[in-house]
Write a structure and sequence with these properties.
- The chain has helices spanning 13-20, 48-54, 73-79, 91-106, 109-117, 144-156, 184-187, 210-215, 233-241, 281-299; strands at residues 4-7, 24-27, 38-41, 60-63, 82-84, 137-140, 161-164, 178-180, 193-196, 220-224, 245-250, 270-272.
- The protein is of the alpha/beta class and 322 residues long.
- The strands form two sheets. The protein has a seven-stranded parallel β-sheet with strand order 8-7-6-9-10-11-12, sandwiched between helices.
- Helix 1 (13-20) runs parallel beside helix 10 and helix 4 (91-106) crosses helix 6.
- It is elongated and about 70 Å long.
- 41% of the residues are buried.
Length: 322
């Protein structure tokens, strides 16, 4: 009898076919979760109730994506359930989205598009954009995505880049045109554009608030493709409304989806996308394939490649050997 794998994510057909060769794949709600040996999650909250609903056969919960702030890793570990994600797969797609948002707000692309479609009279002054070459980009978080954004902007767009990452060694080998500072407050006054690539943790909750926005240059821009709660949205709205910030490009919100009356959705200097940065052809394929790789590893009694909590191993995977 094949092991049961539950998923709330529609996997790429190639990855799904590969998984179905080894497991019974159940797509649906948590009502069909019971008896699963692995659970593939999108935005579900994984807590004790989720794990108990699955039952004692559950060995792995894996996030189809990078962020796992809705996955209670310590609780999963306590139950002997492994937690994993797919950190490599969305890197290129998410980095490209960040750069795309940066260029969209700098060049007023969306505003120009909307005014032209509406056949409204405009002046060149209203649609005067910003040339990004030689403008300073600040990167908060120098992980996979932050490094790729840095590479594109520093080497391709010729933007000087300043990086802040508290986990980055001062001896890190940085590309030409890239420097590092040791605090967020040292970074903010230098930059014309700020892009956020930090995970959501207690330390990064509302990392960008009123004080931080006021440290940024008047007329600067914010890009966020990380997690919505990293930014205090009320403070961001104030900084945009009073003109301190020139614009923002946002793929994430707090909460998600944003409420229809959220002022950010009605500002012509804000470009918004519905948390789809990794949702590209290759990004989707890579995430699904990486999920299946790790599910098959666990079903074979092997350690998954991207185990979030190393101390969780072997968890329930080792129970069969006892």
């Amino acid at each position: 009898m094949k092991p049961k794998v539950w998923t709330e994510v529609s996997l790429h057909p190639e990855a799904l076919a590969r998984l179905q060769g080894h497991a019974e794949v159940i797509e649906g709600t948590q009502d069909t979760l019971a008896g699963a040996e692995a659970a593939i999650i999108g935005r579900s909250t994984v807590d004790a109730a989720f794990i108990e609903r699955a039952g004692p056969s559950l060995k792995l919960v894996i996030r189809h994506g990078i962020g796992y702030n809705t996955l209670d890793v310590p609780t999963a570990t306590r139950y002997g359930v492994l937690s994993a994600n797919t950190p490599d797969a969305p890197t290129e797609s998410t980095a490209e989205q960040a750069v795309g948002l940066l260029l969209a707000v700098a060049k007023m692309i969306v505003k120009s598009d909307m005014l032209l479609r509406a056949n409204k009279p405009v002046t060149l002054l209203e649609l005067r954009g910003v040339e990004v070459r030689d403008r300073v980009l600040g990167v908060v978080g120098y992980g996979r995505i932050g490094r790729r954004v840095t590479e594109i902007c520093a080497l391709g767009l010729k933007m000087p880049v300043v990086v802040f990452d508290p986990y980055l060694s001062s001896s890190a080998n940085l590309p030409d045109g890239v420097t590092m500072v040791d605090s967020l407050n040292a970074l903010l006054p230098q930059v014309d554009f700020l892009t956020l690539h930090t995970p959501l943790m207690p330390e990064t909750y509302r990392l960008m608030g009123e004080q931080q926005f006021r440290l940024m240059k008047p007329g600067s821009f914010l890009i966020n493709v990380s997690r919505g709660p990293v930014v205090d949205e009320v403070a961001l709205i104030h900084a945009l409304q009073d003109g301190h910030l020139a614009g923002a490009g946002l793929d994430v919100f707090d909460p998600e989806p944003p409420m229809p009356d959220n002022p950010l959705l009605h500002m012509s200097n804000v470009v918004v996308t519905p948390h789809v940065a990794s949702n590209t052809d290759k990004g989707y394929w890579k995430m699904s394939q990486n999920v299946v790789d790790q599910v098959l590893q666990v079903l074979a009694g092997e350690r998954p490649a991207f185990l979030i909590d190393p101390t969780a191993w072997p968890g329930r995977v080792g129970m069969a050997d006892r």
